[in-house]
């Protein structure tokens, strides 16, 4: 499964059979046809009538084009327009990534195979599936962006076994099932999802082995040799592990490497200064990465921008929140959080730096899911676009947003974006 995920980051290749030469000859052919037409027009004395007809065509096309624009704008709601102005999106310009988007460097500079076009095609397919979800209000669980991300990645990888750590009422189990209808799932979660059925909607999967309730075992304590044997898995690189258990992601990475798993998805990849566990985004937030490393000076450019943005975005953090004692900005105010913020440890910058070097030494691929759509379309108010990569459906593309069926979803389902990340790892 994995081989097809990867592609090297390199310039557009020139094929061995001389594609470039082919393109050049095509251009040459166009020039000679144009030259021949011009020669004919001049020779026959039809130059002025042709120019006049050309001018009329340009005027008519331009009129039709602008009228269509007016129709599109009036079709989108006035609410949509006022929101654009509210966030300062004059001229539909948004500010995704304006404060930098830290990312983890990989061993060989490889990235994923899929493109934005694949993601848009995926969205078209996933929206009607999402509408059939059994748990409509999944508060404290995944919203639309990450549900789509998990479904898309899983379907692309086509694993032989899916492992999930942290199921809550079972929404993510249901998403995995939609991606792979016949593949076995192993779910590790302290409270069995069936317990939630008594109070309301929940999802219990028939083709899933639950380590839950009295049978619960933490991912780090599972005898994976025994479990893989029981499920007939010979090659652990054919397994996908999904973590949504709010544990220190460095700890989970080490446990996954030890067990020999290579494909990992982490749901909550919290930004620096936020969240209840140490994340990859936090670990790779280093001075040598764009948007990485921070100064605790309130009056710095970053300090002033953050203070302004905090007024608009609920999850944005200003310098006061970012910095702890001794100007410690890494992790969350110098803390490496774990287990839903129940267990924290202060770490030095040197330790934080060492952690990022370790992560980089085992990473083959690091891919953060972009937000599904810009906030002027989704009306989300939580995550700050300044710390996120450009969305799949960019602000201003209301036609596409509507065509994909996204305009029919409630705004609240877009509020849970926390940079879900897909990692491919190996230890050499
Ligand atoms: C945010 S919820 C998961 C949401 C779920 N994936 C969804 O999409 O709806 C976190 C879950 O992790 C569970 N959890 C807590 N500690 C855990 C651990 N050590 N291992 C696995 N799950 C754990 C919690 O009981 C809770 O069900």
Tags for this entry?
alpha/beta, seven-stranded mixed sheet, two-stranded antiparallel ribbon, 38% helix, disordered N terminus, binds S-adenosylmethionine, transmembrane, DNA-directed RNA polymerase subunit beta, transmembrane helix
Task: List the SSEs and their pairings.
Layout: E1 6-8, H1 19-44, H2 47-75, H3 78-86, E2 110-112, H4 116-130, H5 144-157, E3 161-165, H6 171-179, E4 184-189, E5 208-212, H7 224-230, E6 239-243, H8 249-259, E7 263-266, H9 280-283, H10 301-310, H11 319-322, E8 335-338, E9 343-346, H12 349-362, E10 363-368, H13 375-378, H14 398-403, E11 421-425
Parallel strand pairs: 3-4, 3-6, 4-5, 6-7
Antiparallel strand pairs: 1-2, 7-11, 8-9, 10-11
The chain binds S-adenosylmethionine (SAM).
Residues 138, 140-142, 165-169, 171-172, 188-191, 218, 244-247 line the site of S-adenosylmethionine (SAM).
The rough form would be described as: globular
Proportion of beta-strand residues: 5-15%
Secondary-structure element string = EHHHEHHEHEEHEHEHHHEEHEHHE
Mean pLDDT score, rounded?
85
Low-confidence stretches: 2-43, 62-84, 89-93
């Amino acid at each position: 499964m994995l081989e097809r995920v990867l592609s090297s980051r390199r310039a557009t290749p020139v094929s061995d059979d001389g594609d470039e030469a082919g393109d050049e000859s095509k251009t040459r052919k166009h020039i000679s046809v144009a030259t021949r037409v011009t020669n004919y027009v001049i020779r026959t004395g039809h130059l002025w009538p042709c120019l006049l007809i050309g001018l009329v065509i340009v005027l008519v096309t331009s009129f039709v084009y602008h009228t269509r624009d007016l129709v599109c704008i009036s079709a989108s709601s006035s609410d949509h327009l006022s929101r654009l102005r509210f966030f300062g999106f004059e001229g539909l310009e948004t500010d995704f990534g304006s404060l930098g988007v830290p990312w983890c460097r990989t061993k060989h500079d490889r990235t994923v195979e899929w493109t934005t076009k694949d993601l848009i095609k995926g969205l078209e397919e996933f929206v009607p599936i999402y509408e059939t979800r059994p748990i409509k209000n999944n508060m404290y669980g995944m919203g639309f962006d990450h549900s789509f991300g998990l479904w898309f990645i899983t379907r692309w990888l086509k694993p032989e076994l899916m492992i999930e750590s942290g199921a809550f009422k079972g929404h993510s189990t249901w998403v995995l099932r939609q991606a792979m209808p016949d593949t076995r799932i192993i779910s590790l979660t302290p409270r069995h999802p069936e317990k939630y059925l008594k109070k309301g909607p929940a999802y219990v999967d028939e083709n899933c082995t639950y380590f839950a309730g009295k049978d619960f075992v933490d991912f780090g304590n599972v005898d994976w040799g025994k479990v893989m044997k029981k499920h007939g898995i010979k090659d652990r690189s054919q397994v996908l592990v999904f973590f949504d258990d709010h544990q220190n992601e460095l700890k989970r990475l080490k446990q996954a490497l030890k067990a020999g798993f290579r494909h990992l998805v982490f749901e909550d990849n919290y930004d620096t200064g936020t969240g209840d566990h140490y994340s990859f985004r936090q670990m790779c937030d280093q001075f040598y990465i764009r948007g990485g490393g921070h100064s605790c000076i309130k009056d710095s450019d970053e300090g002033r921008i953050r203070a302004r943005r905090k007024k608009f975005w609920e999850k944005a953090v200003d310098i006061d929140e970012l910095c702890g004692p001794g100007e410690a900005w890494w992790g969350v105010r110098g803390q490496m959080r774990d287990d839903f913020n129940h267990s924290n440890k202060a770490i030095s910058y040197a330790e934080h730096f060492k952690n990022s070097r370790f992560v980089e030494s085992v990473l083959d691929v690091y891919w953060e899911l972009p937000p599904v759509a810009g906030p002027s379309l989704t009306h989300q108010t939580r995550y700050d676009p300044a710390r996120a990569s450009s969305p799949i459906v960019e602000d201003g593309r209301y036609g596409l947003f509507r065509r994909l069926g996204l305009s029919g979803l409630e705004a609240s389902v877009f509020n849970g974006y926390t940079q879900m990340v897909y990692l491919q790892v190996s230890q050499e």
